[in-house]
Amino acid sequence: MAIEMKFIDDAVIKMNISKFLSKELTKAGFSRVEIQKTPVLTRITVYVLNPGRVIGRMGKSINELTESIRRNFNVNNPQISVIEVQNKMLEPLLVAKDITFKLERSINPRKITQFTLKSIMENGALGAEIIIRGKLAAKGA
């Protein structure tokens, strides 16, 4: 029973770290995070659009981020590495944020989906599905 609880606790900690990083790194264009736990350290790889915002001047921001992860989540020796996203249109979270930004500016949803799908396909994807739900503002009303 103790082994199962250890796996569950590790998964919960990884999920909480992922949520924390997505909130902290929204301005840097957070895409995803990979967390590998070893006996000596915890390696956290963050994929962002703008790595300069994560690292900060003289590495100040990344040191603060490492320290807050160490304090808040009781992670022994977290080691954060930042990787730049090479192609923005192949990262689903970044594409979704771009679509929401355009919807907030009240651009026609059909135009948004067609343009986004076209640019996703031009960047090398074999296919994509865009679903927009909810009440959308009508221009003619």
UniProtKB/TrEMBL annotation:
Pfam families, alphabetized: KH_2
Ranges for domain KH type-2: 17-86
SUPFAM superfamilies: Prokaryotic type KH domain (KH-domain type II), Ribosomal protein S3 C-terminal domain
GO cellular component terms, semicolon-separated: cytosolic small ribosomal subunit
GO MF, one annotated term: rRNA binding
This protein's record includes keyword Repressor: no
UniProt keywords, alphabetically: Ribonucleoprotein, Ribosomal protein, RNA-binding, rRNA-binding
Sequence similarity: Belongs to the universal ribosomal protein uS3 family.
Record protein name field: Ribosomal protein S3-domain protein
Biological source species: mine drainage metagenome
